[in-house]
């Protein structure tokens, strides 16, 4: 007979993954995003201490993504070979070393070099985890997992502000500038957590000692069914490079580029916008900068719960992009307090778009190019993180305002929203359709 209810062993295995592995990779992502974006809180300090102006700062902040893009695909291919436990922890330890070294920045040139090296060190972490999910969860569970994971990046923005602000207040302790304390302590913490994570991460379902044999069998069977949907026999003899460069993959790259373009512009320039609010200290700027990301987390989790049950993700990617564009535009038309409220809408829109985008992208890719395709989308898409801050920095340098740059980014987001429906997605079963196998 065919059981109509879900297999208890399958559900138990999924819950154990969510309890044991997901919190660890989320915590790693929180630290990752903190180490990537903490530079946004030292713009004024760099200008005062090192003479690094807005244009040079924007270029340096964006150079991270150049190194990231170059080494992203090779890194994800190596993760596929060595496994998540070895490769993700290696990435974390090396990026921690580079962050700590940023404390020794002495001029614009060293700032450019260290930001580029940070991108090289971090390359492969985010797409590596996204690929890791495909080896542990079928499509019907990945929406929630991706939203929770992306919630880690939003949570990072919540804690980065207060933590970085507090560390900046250590200015003068031991004769060391506050921004140097920030990089030294946050980078050192990453190295420690990277070493610890190596003892807990499990790369494959069959290696999980905390799963019973029945749970392993049920979860593996669900993943195999999902992979069967994503595997196309017609492409078995087609070279990987042709599959990776087909128009659908390039369309996904474009969509993520548009999200990154404005999303990272908000991330890097939000503290400087908040700082225009009268009588705000470094610590207060950090607290206020956390508000947009709190809004984003609540919205992301709600949307993920809905899309996992309906399988409808494309419309919500478009809606998120439009909301993000609206928030970015409105941030330019009012006083600093109004700009902060508008950026709450902008951050919510772009984070919701990303949380719906990644499960859509995962399920759209041929199984043969899952690792390389995810890495390519993330690497080319993240170049938006180079273009966005660089454009906004250049515009502010020449006009004294970020408004012109934010206008342009809003237009790009609206254009991207119009192209979402060109993505050809495979049929996405809702979570409720994951049933137990046939029992004779």
Automatic annotation (TrEMBL):
<dbReference type="InterPro" id="IPR011701">
    <property type="entry name" value="MFS"/>
</dbReference>
<protein>
    <submittedName>
        <fullName>Sugar phosphate permease</fullName>
    </submittedName>
</protein>
<feature type="transmembrane region" description="Helical">
    <location>
        <begin position="283"/>
        <end position="303"/>
    </location>
</feature>
<feature type="transmembrane region" description="Helical">
    <location>
        <begin position="315"/>
        <end position="331"/>
    </location>
</feature>
<keyword id="KW-1133">Transmembrane helix</keyword>
<feature type="transmembrane region" description="Helical">
    <location>
        <begin position="179"/>
        <end position="202"/>
    </location>
</feature>
<feature type="transmembrane region" description="Helical">
    <location>
        <begin position="249"/>
        <end position="271"/>
    </location>
</feature>
<dbReference type="Pfam" id="PF07690">
    <property type="entry name" value="MFS_1"/>
</dbReference>
<feature type="transmembrane region" description="Helical">
    <location>
        <begin position="145"/>
        <end position="167"/>
    </location>
</feature>
<keyword id="KW-0813">Transport</keyword>
<feature type="transmembrane region" description="Helical">
    <location>
        <begin position="404"/>
        <end position="423"/>
    </location>
</feature>
<dbReference type="InterPro" id="IPR020846">
    <property type="entry name" value="MFS_dom"/>
</dbReference>
<dbReference type="GO" id="GO:0005886">
    <property type="term" value="C:plasma membrane"/>
</dbReference>
<keyword id="KW-0812">Transmembrane</keyword>
<feature type="transmembrane region" description="Helical">
    <location>
        <begin position="112"/>
        <end position="133"/>
    </location>
</feature>
<keyword id="KW-0472">Membrane</keyword>
<feature type="transmembrane region" description="Helical">
    <location>
        <begin position="337"/>
        <end position="358"/>
    </location>
</feature>
<dbReference type="InterPro" id="IPR036259">
    <property type="entry name" value="MFS_trans_sf"/>
</dbReference>
<dbReference type="GO" id="GO:0022857">
    <property type="term" value="F:transmembrane transporter activity"/>
</dbReference>
<feature type="domain" description="Major facilitator superfamily (MFS) profile">
    <location>
        <begin position="21"/>
        <end position="428"/>
    </location>
</feature>
<feature type="transmembrane region" description="Helical">
    <location>
        <begin position="54"/>
        <end position="74"/>
    </location>
</feature>
<feature type="transmembrane region" description="Helical">
    <location>
        <begin position="17"/>
        <end position="34"/>
    </location>
</feature>
<feature type="transmembrane region" description="Helical">
    <location>
        <begin position="370"/>
        <end position="392"/>
    </location>
</feature>
<feature type="transmembrane region" description="Helical">
    <location>
        <begin position="86"/>
        <end position="106"/>
    </location>
</feature>
